[in-house]
Design brief:
Four copies of one chain form a homotetramer. The first copy, chain A, is an alpha/beta fold. Helices cover 37% and strands 19% of the residues of chain A. Chain A has a single domain, classed as Rossmann fold, CATH 3.40.50.1000. In chain A, the strands form two sheets. In chain A, strands 5-4-1-6-7-8 form a six-stranded parallel beta sheet. The first copy, chain A, has a two-stranded antiparallel ribbon with strand order 2-3. The longest helix of chain A is centred in the N-terminal third of the chain and has 12 residues. Chain A is globular, with a radius of gyration of 15 Å. β3 of chain A pairs antiparallel with β2 of chain B, so a sheet runs across the interface.
């Protein structure tokens, strides 16, 4: 039963594009990519961090604004411009920050496939690619950028009786 | 009958994110959150204010642009960065600005739950969270940012025979 | 038959919000409202102007960018910040710019209702308000900002055998 | 069988608006048109270029940001502000850059019609105009800006056994 697994999670790792966003990026005149995020995801993220969940973000993208936004929500460990997500994960394990047996991952596309296969709880938005959906323990009914982060964090908070707090 | 209640409303309090917007926020390079609003909501807001309805906005977010926009529509009381909406409501009651028996509230998410339970008329967009929908006297058929504000204000204006004016 | 009427049109007046756009406005830090337009609408607008159709835009909104964009497409008469669309129309009639018997109008909301009732050919996007849809000679199957302008201009161009040209 | 044809393609030419984007353009205060692109399209573009596919972009629009973005993905030949796409194609053929018998094109609107009719493999997003859909060898099930580029490039990569690499 996936809820039993989710309840035990102590670290939640998230991808950004297609998870915290809908996969669209706004291209400004310099070619920088700006993102649109979701307020309800933000509410749950803040609440989960305050409730003791360790949230880590690992993304291939570079967006100063997204980092600032996540920091303000209480997410301190934000890795951007990452080419090899497994390498980042390995460092986090080696330094004792992450214990795979209590770690969850939410991703949506190919660069998430290998790292996702390592963690205890694998989840994704409803519009993830087929390869990701196939290995997921839980597929949210929400799309990326439309509440998939909120969905899993709200579930974790409720399972740990910290939603109403 | 909810229309009888709505007709008597003299003060309408609105949340911003998920009500005047669809809950998406555009993150700029500084991590500031910029919003997309709806022209038809704006039309009804302006008309309702001119017709004597007191409109108040209370939001957890901070957006200078949203405040300016609302001010231009005639909404003078805009409270931003609010952590505790009940505290703001209590001050408004104490200072005689708000009379709960003729006050309505439209919200969509957890931070709206308590304040909404206090007012005479509770309403929400169709994509509000289940907890909000459960206590609502009226659920608009429109989503947040897609005309839910217009819907309730147009109804109020028509009930008070001020829509065609 | 509405196509017979459309073919004879020599002047096409358009609203902006909800017609050239989907009714959403992006609010920047100053409270200015920025718009999203549609490339296919732009293609047809440019082609129609070059084919001899007089296109006029009358909007309640103020957007320097929209004016510049429309000018570049060949639309020279763009009236912004208009409170009373009928007054602008009357001036255009008095100065001989517009002949109502060969004029069409596309609008979507209350401020379009009176001016629309004056012209020879009335049309609207599929998501116009019920009051507008009720008086329309033709309701496009496209939403505002999603090709409703393209739809009517392409039809006009085809009827006048100028689409393939 | 269209997959046999697609496998042999060595050059893929793309339109921008309605293909890499959903056809919407954000109009800033200067009337400049800014675009929203898709991260998954970007992933496949980068991978295809690295796998030896020549990708060329020809667009009627002007967007410095889009050019920078495409360059960063490895697309070096980006032609913007193009009035006559056939003229650009002819130059590419004359200079030996493009061999029509192994060239594909993805477009969505009238300015793509003639150039598309020349190439060996014609494809389009699901929301292309009827004239384009009629001549397409393959219609992606994805809309413009919502993964149609990803779809055809992923198929090409898989056919050439370079997707997992």
């Amino acid at each position: 039963m996936y809820l039993t697994e989710l309840k035990k999670i102590q670290t939640f790792i998230f991808d950004v594009d297609g998870v915290f966003t809908d996969g669209s990026v706004f291209v400004n005149d310099n070619g920088d990519l700006l993102r649109t995020m979701n307020i309800r995801d933000g509410y749950a993220t803040k609440k989960a961090v305050r409730s003791g969940l360790q949230i880590i973000v690992i993304t291939g993208g570079n967006s100063r604004g997204v980092v600032t936004r996540l920091n303000r929500l209480g997410v301190e460990k934000v890795f951007t411009g990452v080419q090899d997500k497994i390498a980042v994960l390995d460092e986090l394990i080696d330094s004792g920050v992450v214990d795979l047996s209590t770690t969850a991952y939410m991703g949506d596309d190919m660069p998430d496939l290998k790292i996702m296969s390592k963690v205890a709880f694998k989840c994704c938005p409803s519009d993830a690619i087929p390869e990701i959906i196939e290995i997921a323990d839980y597929v949210s009914s929400n799309h990326g950028g439309r509440g998939c982060v909120r969905d899993v964090l709200e579930k974790w908070l409720k399972l740990n009786e910290k939603w109403g707090a």
